[in-house]
């Protein structure tokens, strides 16, 4: 990670190992040239409003472009579009943009059995929020497909490890559960699906176009889809500015220091995420202490990463 202040990179964190003791924290020479005198007379809310106001024009252009994109993609099919809803910040923003467009959609949260407890609870509360707020319930319905923790344990026992070179969690948990749920929601096939990945997140996601055409998805028939990434060109700052501007719901995992609301043992995240997960989910990690979770290494190549399907 790199920390930027006043247009300069001033601090760097190198994740060279699995534990925090192995990470390197470096102050760059530019750190000394920064004026650290802060105006402590403004409240956090005042600072937040100042941020929103300063970025209003840029955010407005980005939002307008995305609204046009959503409307154009949704015009390609007569069936309701599907939003793969993780409960993360991107899916929350995607939902709100659909609401701005006035476009109806079905939402699907597909668990894996490795989901954070906080994430599962947030999804349940959000489903109730949709159902009890007419401005949302008139447009959206949220379907929750739970995962199977017992299946997770059996797969760990079978393989002894989970890593980016052997992502059985996707092939044998996430995709079958998700695809069967889609089949129930769309017996005749879903034409258009939206997903919240962004180019700024990883090199792997930067390799995806804003619109994919996907065929022969394992697990259900008539699986041709237009797979759209409405927020592909948004960065994290854009996402949070939009969330704070419209006072949207925030998944509690972000308040706990997590960057993503993904599985508690996901190997596709940086070591900080796994370190935080071990801190907050000791019981779950104790259940798999005999096995290993292997994440990214410095020499990981883009071609070695799992494909979306």
What report would you give on this structure?
Strands 6-5-4-8-10-9 form a six-stranded mixed beta sheet, sandwiched between helices. The two termini are 29 Å apart. Helix 1 crosses helix 9, helix 2 crosses helix 3 and helix 3 crosses helix 9. It is an alpha/beta fold and 309 residues long. It has twelve helices and eleven strands. The radius of gyration is 21 Å and the shape is globular. 41% of the residues lie in helices and 15% in strands.
Features:
globular, 3-stranded antiparallel beta sheet, disordered C terminus, single chain, 309 residues
β-strand amount: 15-25%
Mean pLDDT across every amino acid position: 87
Low-confidence stretches: 298-309
Which term fits the overall shape? globular
Kindly report the spatial arrangement of strands forming the biggest sheet: 6-5-4-8-10-9
* C-alpha termini separation: 29 Å
Sequence of secondary-structure elements:
EEEHHEHEHHEHEHEHEEHHHHE
* Number of extended strands: 11
Number of helices: 12
- Radius of gyration, rounded? 21 Å
Structural class label: alpha/beta
Could you give a quick summary of the protein structure above?
The chain has 309 residues and is α/β, with parallel strands linked by helices.
What is this structure's SSE topology?
Elements: E1 2-5, E2 8-14, E3 24-27, H1 44-54, H2 56-74, E4 82-84, H3 89-101, E5 105-110, H4 117-132, H5 134-137, E6 140-145, H6 149-159, E7 161-163, H7 168-185, E8 192-194, H8 203-206, E9 211-214, E10 225-228, H9 236-245, H10 252-255, H11 271-280, H12 282-287, E11 292-294
Parallel strand pairs: 4-5, 4-8, 5-6, 7-11, 8-10
Antiparallel strand pairs: 1-2, 2-3, 9-10
